[in-house]
Amino acid sequence: QVQLVESGGGLVQTGGSLKLSCSASGSGFSINAMGWFRQTPGSQRELVAVIPSSGSTNYADSVKDRFTISRDNAKNTVYLQMISLKPEDTAVYYCYCNIKARAGSLRYDYWGQGTQVTVSS
Known about the structure:
Strands 2, 4, 5, 6, 9, 10 and 11 form a seven-stranded mixed β-sheet that branches. Strands 1-3-8-7 form a four-stranded antiparallel β-sheet, with no helix packed on it. By secondary structure, it is mainly β. The chain has no helices and eleven strands. About 0% of the residues lie in helices and about 60% in strands.
């Protein structure tokens, strides 16, 4: 039984910064890829950044050079450092983890509850 808990969202002005965190709780699992998605009303959920177990990173073009994804494997936590925020970054941000049960080979995608990021003009 794995749960993802997000934190760090809030309201900032254009050009401000926020750091999102998402921690996976539970036991008997290991984490493969971790990432962040975001969604605005009337839009599809889109990938923001992903960091596989290899440590490599990939970003949506709209956030390159402004957002940084990182992970702390010892804490089962993924972070998203966001700088130079723009109004178009306003969205609900969801973290996800692809998780493997240590007792077997099954893999699952888990999603956080979402955290609101609002960037004012």
